[in-house]
Amino acid sequence: MKKIVYLVLVLGTFQLNAQNLDWWDALHDYPNAAGTDRDRYISISPGYMGPNALRVPVLRNGKIDNELWTETSFEYHYGNGDRTVNIWSEFNIPLAKDKALLYVQSVPWEWWRVTTEIRNERRIRNQGGEGWNTGDTAFGVILRLANENKTRLPNITFRAHSKTTTGGNISNARNTDASMFFWEMTTSKTIFESENSSLLLKGMIGFYTWQTNKNNLPNGSDFFQNDAGTYGVGIEYIRGKWFVGSDVAGYHGYIQNRDTPTFWRTQVSYRFKHIALYSNINFGLNSWGWNTISIGYRHFFKTIE
What we know:
This protein has helices at residues 2-19, 22-27, 116-121; strands at 67-79, 82-96, 100-114, 130-133, 137-146, 155-163, 180-193, 197-211, 225-239, 242-253, 262-271, 275-284, 291-303. By secondary structure, the protein is mainly beta. It has a twelve-stranded antiparallel beta barrel. Strand 1 (67-79) and strand 2 (82-96) form a beta hairpin. The longest helix is centred in the N-terminal third of the chain and has 18 residues, at 2-19. It is elongated, with a radius of gyration of 22 Å. It starts with a helix and ends with a strand.
């Protein structure tokens, strides 16, 4: 009986402590600054949230991947007073050979720690400045519009992508708890090709949009939505079982509250029969950005004929 009473007291004390936001209210002039909804104090912008909140679209290669595969990787993000570790997973599902595919992406787990300065800047409600949460699930469709092997045109694909609101923890500026969409056109051209190697140039342009909090606060927004142009240019080299790619990609929002993330990405992978091992290094090219190191593997199941 004593143990039960003790447990109840501990849980009650924890709950009271968790609900004690006097320090946060005083720091951010709550509720006078922006009303009684504390979540509306969060600035929904890539420069004021975790690195998984509004990810930069990965520059693809203008082709359709005809293999059914799953991918899992561990990512470490650092910089801008934020350290984040997360699991990344993706499923590639060909729908029609060389014509269409569906993919699903997810961040099933994320751990994070921020400095006191960043905690205050982002108006995070976790006083300790660290925790864990689940991330968003997203999906997209890619359609191939032109094939360089069949026409005089370069490879051209169209992609439509949507993020769900499955990710939690908006109170700590980790996920947006709102929709996001982007549409893009990717083109590529093979510059050199031999029996066991090839060199390809690629580029993309598109449109990225997401919901924001209209709160009129510093680093906040005067609008309910932010729109951005996406862009990217890169190169891919394949030699035997090795793959090396490098590109610069990002997007440019119109609100101008750290909504212009740009990354230089380099990828290296080696493929065995049914498994590929890879490593990615992303360098943030903004003063408020972050860097990312990831390692992972891809398991191939079958090729769609």
